[in-house]
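Task: encode each sequence below as structure tokens.

Item 1
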Amino acid sequence: MIERIGVCLIPICIALNPDQHWNTPMWQALLIMFVAMSMIPAGDLNGKLLTSDHAVAPAFVAWSRFALGTVMILPFVPRSAPGLLRDWRIWVRALCLTGGIFSIQTALVTEPLANVFAAFFVGPLVSYALSALFLKEPASLVRSLLMLTGFAGVLLVVRPGLGGSTGLLWAMAAGTFYGLFLTSSRWLSGLGSPMALSFTQLFISALVLLPLGLSNLPQTLTFPIAALTTGSAAFSMLGNLLLLFAYAKMPATKLAPLVYFQLIAAVGLGWAVFGDLPDSLTWAGLALIMTSGVISALLRR
């Protein structure tokens, strides 16, 4: 089913440019990446609508995303996946993701989608530093300078002590948790298939957040709340699955620059739904984050 999404996009691209050879693994992977990088912010948009328009607690949004994601992915999980739960490292990895999703949902209560995603992109910087220190991955001077440039862009968005808000600090916390999650994912990538690892992170996070989720249930389960809750989980899970599928078609180093399309999608969705557009300093921060990230990713090719 996932592969058909990439295939179904090909006729549109052929109509736009009939001379291009779109029906190749490379172009399928690129098209799927663009869809995936739009779906992930769309999931957070649903979460923001829940907390800001329907007064749903961020704890419930985070828990329901993991709980529904577990149910959705369950039919495709290999039988070996539950055995991974015996490894304590799998729990540490999942807890990093739990902290990240809880933090980003808390940030979205008060902050525009684009600003939250910009601050959230401190995650790749954290992952870069931790991978160099603990996983002994190569770290060049040029890439280190690019990472510092990206961090300067994050600071332009967050502006700690200079008009920045607590919500954006929550977004930075989410990015830090995500950086830890990325590093632990590289560390544990050989333990199981991507589908098995996805199941463990969803199941453990749903289990850990279960008390908070049940204690913060919406007072009334209206159709909009049910639809947005389902959309939050579905967009997030499908976006991440599409990401894994794209990586199966092409090397991660070639697709890495497209991860920053999330920022463009977040700006577009925030403007379309809430009428939010970044201020001049935030635009400058976004430009620094995207430029440094794309150049750094291209240097890894």
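Item 2
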Amino acid sequence: MLIIGIAGGTGSGKTTVVNKIISLLPPGEVTVIPQDSYYKDLSGMPPEQRSKVNFDEPAAIEWSLLVEHLRELRDGRGVDMPVYSYLTCTRQKETERIEPRDVVIVEGILVLNDPTLRKMMDVKVFVDADADDRLIRVIARDCVERGRTPQAVIDRYQDVLKPMHEMYIEPSKRHADLIVPQGGSNAVAINLLTDYIDARLKRARLQR
């Protein structure tokens, strides 16, 4: 199994990079573990307090569960991944069954911050993008998918996203083996990464 970590700021194009990698590899070879599925459950907290929680710092993630699930997958066992609701800031009763695949991509803004998780990764990628481009994507996404107003998104960007990016996400770039500028539009970097993954998989199959 090849474990790939893909990090980068909110709105940097991480999901686009992941989807392009999946599309370039044979069907059924890749499974994706989103960091966002492992936000701590806040169902015991009043709704008005949940909206004030900082979701862009490492303390918001249940890293121990993410690491445990990744180890299970690496050992050939399936896991029941949490399903998180951005609207209620709680984990749902249902889970998503994830089975082991030749390639596991762990994707999220903070996945290069946790040292235990980093040590499990065979390849560490940081998707880079201009701050203005990231903000535009965040406004478009949060208004459509999370029911926020443009002003609320801008306020959150200034109060939380920008300082957390500078404190945690940008510094994690130094742990990356590959930096992908221009996000999902960088076809050269994505093709290089995909070719590397494909070569590693072919080598592993020959050694079986």
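Check on item 2: DSSP finds seven helices and seven strands in the chain. The domain at 2-199 is CATH 3.40.50.300 (Rossmann fold).
End of task.
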